[in-house]
TrEMBL record:
SUPFAM superfamilies: Periplasmic binding protein-like II (SSF53850). Gene3D superfamilies: 3.40.190.290. Belongs to the LysR transcriptional regulatory family. Coiled coil: none annotated. Residues 24-230 form the LysR substrate-binding domain. This is LysR substrate-binding domain-containing protein. It comes from the Bacteria. PANTHER family: HTH-TYPE TRANSCRIPTIONAL ACTIVATOR TTDR-RELATED (PTHR30537:SF5), HTH-TYPE TRANSCRIPTIONAL REGULATOR (PTHR30537). InterPro entries: LysR-type_TF_proteobact-type, LysR_subst-bd.
Amino acid sequence: MLDKGLLILQGLDDLQEQIDERKEQVCGKLRVLAPLGFGNDYIAPLLGEYKTMHPQLDVELELSDNPNWAKHHRWDIIIYIGKLNDSSLKMITLASNQRFVCASPMYLERKGCPTTPNELTRHECIALRENNEDVTLWQFEDENGRPDIVRITPTLASNEGRVIKNWALSGLGIIMRSEWDVQPQINSGDLVRLLPDYSLPNADIVALLSSPDKERSARISGFISLLKARIAPIPWK
């Protein structure tokens, strides 16, 4: 009975949202799932801005680096960074995002600078365990597109990106991180990009929709437009 009641209430909510959409009103509830670090730094402020633009809109933001894909239908928009496992979701690319290997000048003064991926096996590497990827397998390509894959043995590991970046800033090892997260520190000289002649797989920033119909919703399409306007001119360059 409880499940049936919840389904009825959800149906009534959906019906009201459809009525509002026909009036082209941005209202109802916008449910967004985003990665922890990127969600804190970029998505949360943009949702606050969007709410100010549309006072009748309710907003729910959940932050997680390991989403439960079986419940993807709960969310209007899923912001995702990295390799996508579920191709059934509609994907909208928001920004390109490279991955870099980097370390602090303090670490490089102490341990030296690797010149090939294989030399990483003799360095202190830090792993980020944020999703289902094999986080100790770092897959490089050289300038000619030839793969150069190395298995690191991490001396430190965490599931939180800010933790591993702070460890790297403190001179404790080498990290592989998204450009959006470390480019400001590379620009300031607090981190140094390593192995610039090698590339890692991109981890583009995308918005995922469980159904193409969701893109026709005023509240969803409006926020997607705001994301593109703020993130497509990449702010971390």
